[in-house]
Specification:
With about 90 residues, this protein is mostly helical. It has one domain. It has four helices and two strands, in the order ααββαα. The protein has a two-stranded parallel sheet with strand order 1-2. The chain is globular, with a radius of gyration of 16 Å. The model has no long low-confidence stretch (mean pLDDT about 85).
């Protein structure tokens, strides 16, 4: 029973995602993120970001997710460290 309760609590946190809030948070960057700039920048960790006035489409997605307390940078690095062998190699 305890395992079930822990699983239910964990699942609640995972699925506590609002698609409409995500879309609204992404749209809130219209007129703010003004310049498409794909140049490389070293980012802080965690919660690193380029200047909100510039970026690429993924920066808009990452910022919108952060409004829902999801740090994609941290989640990807965590997954990478746990499942490194599952990631493609260079040239694959």
């Amino acid at each position: 029973m305890k395992k079930f309760l822990l699983l239910a609590l964990f699942a609640t946190q995972i699925f506590a995602f609002s698609a409409s809030k995500f879309v609204n948070d992404a749209r809130s960057q219209i007129g703010v993120t003004l310049n498409y700039d794909p140049s490389y920048e070293r980012l802080a960790y965690p919660m690193g970001d380029v200047d909100i006035k510039k970026g690429v489409c993924t920066d808009v997605v990452i910022r919108a997710l952060r409004h829902q307390d999801m740090d994609l940078q941290r989640l990807v690095l965590k997954d990478l460290s746990r499942n490194f062998a599952s990631y493609p190699k260079n040239g694959a």
